[in-house]
Amino acid sequence: MKTIGLLGGMSWESTVTYYQILNETVKRQLGGLHSAKVLLYSVDFAEIEACQSAGEWDRSAQILTEAAQSLERAGADLLVICTNTMHKVAPQIQERVHIPLVHIAEATADALRQRGISKVALLGTRYTMTQAFYKDKLTAAGIDVLVPDEADIRFVDHVIYDELCLGVISPSSKQGYLAVIDKLAARGAQGVILGCTEIGLLIKQADTALPVFDTTEIHAVKAAMLALQD
After folding, report:
1. Any residues with CB less than 8 A from the CB of 216 and at least 6 apart, and which?
2. Which residue segment(s) compose the domain that 98 sits in?
């Protein structure tokens, strides 16, 4: 079994979910007392968020690259960034490590293709919804991406940073998210990507008739299965 290096803490709430899914997947595949071999570098999210707000993406890339190099030196065989937004700097990180980085958007695109989804709604931080670094991975796979209107983008982003990243699960925010999903379904979305690793704490498949693609689960399962390959 390969050792999985996790770049976590962005936020720590969703990193907990990664750890759980990795171990559940390995146990399901191997049985018995098996669990995943994991190394975790948990950063201070306040430092990363400050870089995001200031547009200092090079600084955030430096912080995460140094963390990734620490994981590589410690024996990680593959790398997982436990957040969608910070895949904006995935190319810079990959350039400076010698182990493969499992890209969350590529794993999600594979899951969408397997379900025959050609047009999908994307929810996430304002960076993920409005910038090209994430959507381009999906469009390259032949998938059309729909994002909310500007007011809904602000609402979705607010709930992520001011509630979910602080461990706050609000029923009213859940209803607001479901209303946004309904609008995107009316525009032709065949599924919805929970494109922030915290959104799965709020929205579940049982909440909507639209197929839900939880990127945390997709990403963690993909990493676990790669770790089990020869």
Report:
1. 14, 17, 18, 21, 82, 194, 197, 200
2. 4-103+218-228
| Sheet (strand 4-8) strand order | 38-42, 4-8, 78-81
216 in active site = no
Same domain (yes/no): 94, 154: no
Phi and psi angles of residue 68, each rounded to the nearest 5 degrees, phi first: -65, -40
In tens, the pLDDT along 85-127 reads 999 999 999 999 999 999 999 999 999 999 999 999 999 999 9
Which backbone phi and psi does 150 adopt, to 5 degrees?
-60, -45
Strand partners, 38: 4
Selecting among 17, 83, 125, 197, the annotated active-site residue is 83
Give pTM, 2 decimals: 0.92
Alpha-carbon distance values, 134 to 3, 99, 123, 139, 199 (Å): 26, 21, 11, 9, 16
Per the annotation, the verdict on 196 as an active-site residue is: yes
CATH of the domain at 136: 3.40.50.1860
Q: Which of these, 226, 149, 153, lies nearest to 196 by C-alpha position?
A: 153
Q: How far apart are CA 51 and CA 160, in angstroms?
A: 17
Among the listed residues 65, 85, 196, 215, the single catalytic one is: 196
Instruction: Round to whole Å and give the CA distance between 85 and 81.
Output: 9
